[in-house]
Every structure is written in structure tokens, then in C-alpha cells.
Amino acid sequence: MIPPPSSRLTPIRQVLQIMAALRSPQGCPWDREQDHQTLRWHAVEEVYELLDAIEAKDDQELAEELGDLLLQVVFHAQLASERGVFDFDALCQRLADKLVRRHPHVFGDTKVKNIDQVWANWETIKKAEKQGTRHERPSALDGVPRQLPGLMQAQKLIKKATKAGLAQPARKTRNLSQTSVARQLWNLAELCQAQGWSAEELLRREYRARERQWRRQETQQSSSPVKTKPKRPSPRPRGR
Description:
mainly alpha
């Protein structure tokens, strides 16, 4: 039997001790069998349950689901600690450093006029952090999570491609409502169901095709020489 952690510890230290105990030889058989791979979809499920609690405006459920999501973080940190790569404290310190570094308008002397400048600074700092590392993002299309749902993934790619000038922004339609678009999406889902197709897979297939197209376009643009206007020859000085 493993004694529970002391109540004199802070709550987060109690949670960390409990997780270490669950992973110990005397701990829980299920917890001992888990690794990063087996846990990855648990985190996704907890996020969706958290979204349900937020939409329900249920504070009790919100606290419960936030705790469950924190458990996933603690679990992965414990696994990383056992592998000797980082622990929970290192994870928190890294997060604290990043938040300070990416908010120079709060923790530094940088002045911003609006939220657009905040985001621009964030992206500039983020790009500089990753430069020269294996996480560097040389393409304007990099950084779209592969496991996002198809529609979210498509919108993020379109946003990046449009911002980089690889795609033309869609024209806004005056008499278009969110309800009519929702119905169109629903009708497409019904059509795919009737045909026996996966709407998600079809969209992901189109995503991959568009991504390849825009990456080729980006490569061609970066490799094309910059066209400059030919300079006019300077007039020869006239002799006296």
C-alpha cells in the first residue's frame, strides 16, 4: 500500500506525487502500461469534453474537465521524466519563459497599437525562436497540425496561403448568411453519406492536393530571380 501524499503539500505537488505513485511498481497496472502513443487520443477526448462543459456554461463540469485535461499534461510529464528528457517543473518553466518572451508589450518596452500588431510580433518572435532548429518553418504553409479536423485544417491552410499571396482571398457575398452556409455543409455531408463516401477523407485529399500546389508555387516564387528595371545609362559628360 502506498500512503497518499501529505495535505501540507500544494495541490499540484500532491497530483505529481500521485502520478509518480501510479506509475511505480506498486502502482496501478493500467497506468504502468501507458506511454505517449497510447495516451494521445485521451487528450483529444478530454479537450472535446472541455468544449462541451464550456458550451453548457456549467462551472462544475468546467472545473472537472480542466482537471482531467491537466491530468493528461501531468501524465505525459511523468513519462518524459522517467525517460530523463524533462519533468513537470521544466515544462512549466519553459512555458513561463515563452509567455514572457512573446509578450514584449507587457513584460518589455515594445509598444503596440492594436491586436494585429500583437499577433505580428508573436509570429516574428516565434519564427526567430525556431530558426536554425529542426523545428524551423521555412514555408509560409508550415505549422498546420496534421490531426486537426478537416474543416479546421482547410481553413488554417487557406489563411496561411492567402496571407503569403499564394491564394486569392475569397470574395465576400452580401446576402450570404451563416445559416445558409451551414445548410450547404449539411447537404454536402448528406450527399457524401448517400454516395458512401467519407466527407472527412475527401476534404483531406483536397487539402493535400492544394498544399502540394501551393508549396510548388512558393518554391517557384522563391527561386525566380527578382526582376528589376534596367538602369538607364548615365549621360556621357560633354567635353568643354
